[in-house]
Design brief:
The protein is α+β, with helices and mostly antiparallel strands and 374 residues long. The chain is built from eleven helices and 16 strands.
């Protein structure tokens, strides 16, 4: 038996040419060396994956022309690529943004500031100038990121139409932007301003791809392969946090804190910090603390974890699950007097309309919040 490991996926080669794939909570596609492309579907219920990703990442469609294509059963990479294309088109319709960037260059004439250290390192016969200067350019890390992702996706999509569009936009971008490999760390350090906030959605999807795309030989010497595997835990956490925020948006004095940190439960060194996925507050005071769980059943460790949050925040708690046909919904009373609930959100809503999807989820969460904290 031979095993090969990539992030989130274990490939097991057994006797008789049998291949077994093992994965956890990830969904996506895997192209095996010289073999088929395998699509890994969510094992929980039957969620509308396209709408779920859009809602989680705030990527409401800006171009409806691709809706039919997305509903027709394209594979996962093509789906992500189509979403990326929609947001890239929206950015380019407003124009690429130029910014000042720091440049270190060797120039025939003095430009900007002379870098004395580099100049002296060139020796006494040096006739050009080592300069540091600011250049107003399209060739920024932000634009390089979206070009990098367009290039990556164009090489892995199956749909010829989507691949052609990606290559067309890639060609347009390369007239002004340098194509290079951009790391997820670089992409996550990008800070948008009021002048570049129209890049927000395409940047979210770019980070999603850069974080989860894997292009390499899965088995040494057997040809190039790729996988795009996205952790549904992360996606569902974003869905739950957004649902909670939209539920309390119209309530005066209410707010939601995502990935809240508490360090007042355990004292000692080194400190142990705990991060519930969200905390609902009313006039600054916690009234509900919760965790999102992309699972088909309630695990004891999840209950222990959320009860610890409850102790720290002195508030009711909830474990939020995707649609399980009511199988995990339940209510408990904890000895400290607070309630502990298991809530399912309607993630299986069969719609391509992100707003309708959000409305269904918000209504379910609103009903629960009203019953729990008023």
């Amino acid at each position: 038996m031979i095993e090969s490991q990539v992030d989130g996926l274990r490939v097991e080669y057994r006797r008789g040419k049998q291949v077994v794939l093992h994965t956890d909570h990830r969904v996506g596609v895997v192209a095996l060396p010289d073999g088929p492309t395998i699509e890994i579907q969510p094992k929980i219920g039957d969620p509308n994956l396209v709408t779920l990703l859009r809602y989680a990442n705030g990527a409401e469609p800006t171009h409806l022309s691709r809706e039919t294509e997305l509903e027709s059963g394209t594979n996962f990479v093509d789906t992500v690529a189509a979403l990326f294309l929609e947001e890239l088109e929206a950015v380019l319709s407003q124009g690429l943004r130029r910014e000042y960037v720091d440049v270190e260059g060797t120039e025939e004439y003095l430009r900007g500031r002379l870098n004395v250290q580099r100049q002296l390192a060139g020796g006494p016969g040096k006739t050009d100038f080592e300069c540091d200067y600011d250049e107003f350019t399209y060739d920024t890390t932000l634009n390089q990121t979206i070009l990098c992702v367009a290039n990556v996706l164009s090489s892995v999509v199956d749909g010829t139409g989507i691949a052609g569009e990606l290559r067309e936009y890639e060609s347009r971008l390369r007239r002004r932007v340098t194509l290079r490999e951009v790391s997820i760390e670089e992409a996550e350090r990008i800070e948008l301003t009021r002048l570049t906030d129209y890049y927000e959605k395409v940047l979210v999807l770019s980070r999603l791809v850069l974080k989860h795309i894997y292009i390499e030989d899965i088995v040494a010497g057997e040809g190039a392969s790729y996988s795009l595997l996205i952790g549904m835990n992360d996606v569902f956490e974003k869905v739950v946090e957004r649902t909670a925020r939209e539920t309390v948006d119209e309530r005066d004095g209410w707010s939601v804190e995502g990935q809240a940190r508490t360090d007042n439960l355990l004292r000692g060194s080194p400190p142990i910090r705990m991060r519930p996925d969200f905390v609902v507050k009313r006039h600054g005071e916690p009234v509900l603390v919760g965790d999102a769980k992309w699972k088909t059943g309630v695990k004891n460790n999840d209950v222990y974890q959320v009860v610890a949050y409850q102790t720290a925040y002195d508030a009711p708690c909830v474990l939020v699950y995707p649609d399980n046909d009511g199988a995990v919904e339940n209510d408990y009373s904890v000895k400290n007097g607070h309630s502990l609930a298991m809530l399912e959100l309607p993630t299986g809503v069969n719609t391509a309309d992100v707003h309708e999807f959000g409305r269904e989820n918000v209504e379910r969460f609103f009903d629960f919040l009203s019953r729990t904290v008023g």
